[in-house]
Amino acid sequence: MKSSVRILGIESSCDETAAAIVADGREILSNVVASQVDVHRKYGGVVPELASREHLRQIVPVVREALERANVSLREADAIAVTQGPGLVGSLLVGVTYGKTLALSLEKPLIPVNHLEGHVHAVFLEARAMGREPALPAACLVVSGGHTVLYEVGGQPGAAAVFQYRRIGQTRDDAAGEAYDKVAKLLALGYPGGPVIDQLAGQNGTKVGSPLQFGPTKMKGNPFDFSFSGIKTAVLYYLREHPELREQIQIRQAALDRGERKADQLRPLCSEQTLALLTSFQNAVVRDLVERTIKAAQEVNAASILVSGGVAANSELRRTFDRRANEIGLKVFFPSRALSTDNAAMIAAAAYPKFLAGVRADATLNAEAALPLA
Ligand code: KG4
Ligand code: ZN
């Protein structure tokens, strides 16, 4: 029997230290993620200097745990895959340096992976496990706290296939997840903002209407580019014009300071007007993400739609994509919530076709903060 190729993936591009073992680009043997969210929470965003320090603290135990859970020794791993970029350079350097050291000392192949390609592979990895390989070419939206970018993904289907990528559009300012986090900060809803807004929005809006009259963002130039700074500013202006919401914000901040961060704890501290504001914010973001992706899919004659990254966990985004993709006769694929956010299983999966194709990095491999995928 042919033995499988087991790749150790290492991911440290932002604020999660992650390691995973994936066999043959399709079977997750372990997937360990150490989140730094508690460290960054009080700043309402990732503090790069603190992130690098946390990665340094976590990287060795996280890799060890991934190996133990998979019951694979370092010697048994066939290759070491590491995120080269894009991301925070200090964070990336921890993973790159550690991966390089392991590979050189154990004389294993070292495979550099683009973080965004990892997010694309997160979708394939799980779809494959369920026997539903997405048809290519696909329109793929990667939407997280750091990225909002649309790709056309082409190539042959299968875990061994090397894909080709073409960038169709990207955000010109904030990433969609960043807009969620900034709006949550303005309204004292905690960090990260996406999951809480997801649970609070959509529960109201009928009585108060839509506070933000925000139509589709008009873009000059590439119609598939995104912009989310306008919608964030619209929320800021709304709060300036509605001083009656300020007292509630202070009350919620006090609750957050006491550690009451759950949506169920914050909901009673939100007026109908606040919930309606969140609903209109979320509707505007979701509509923009979905409609541009659907148009792009039609433009490139895509055979399927893929959505990945932290914001892909959003329930309204999933519902709207399912409905709209169905209307145009396409299937839309999302990873599970665990694989939507940053993880190393997606890095190990993306490395598998590269391993087969002989892609190798040497000791000169460096972290690249702005590494493009296409
Ligand atoms: O992929 P990820 O873990 O890290 C980055 O590469 O950024 O994504 C984190 C981002 C945060 O901005 C967070 O607020 C957002 O994803 N997010 C969500 C949801 N869950 C996480 N945004 C909207 N709805 C969600 N359910
Ligand atoms: Zn990411």
Describe this structure in words.
The chain is an alpha/beta fold and 374 residues long. The chain is 44% helix and 17% strand. The protein is built from 13 helices and 10 strands. It has helices spanning 37-40, 48-70, 89-106, 115-129, 176-186, 193-200, 229-241, 246-257, 263-266, 272-299, 315-327, 337-340, 345-357, and strands at 6-11, 16-23, 27-35, 79-85, 110-114, 138-143, 148-154, 164-170, 304-308, 331-333. Strands 3-2-1-4-5 form a 5-stranded mixed sheet, with helices on both faces. A 5-stranded mixed sheet has the order 8-7-6-9-10, with helices on both faces. β1 (6-11) and β2 form a beta hairpin. The longest helix is centred in the C-terminal third of the chain and has 28 residues, at 272-299. The structure holds 5'-O-[(R)-(carboxyoxy)(hydroxy)phosphoryl]adenosine (KG4) and zinc ion. Zinc ion is lined by residues 115, 119, 144, 146, 309, 342.
Overview in brief:
With 374 residues, the chain is an alpha/beta fold. Helices cover 44% and strands 17% of the residues. The strands form two sheets. A five-stranded mixed β-sheet has the order 3-2-1-4-5, sandwiched between helices.
Fold blueprint:
Blueprint: E1 6-11, E2 16-23, E3 27-35, H1 37-40, H2 48-70, E4 79-85, H3 89-106, E5 110-114, H4 115-129, E6 138-143, E7 148-154, E8 164-170, H5 176-186, H6 193-200, H7 229-241, H8 246-257, H9 263-266, H10 272-299, E9 304-308, H11 315-327, E10 331-333, H12 337-340, H13 345-357
Parallel strand pairs: 1-4, 4-5, 6-9, 9-10
Antiparallel strand pairs: 1-2, 2-3, 6-7, 7-8
Helix pairs in contact: 2-3, 4-13, 5-6, 5-7, 10-11
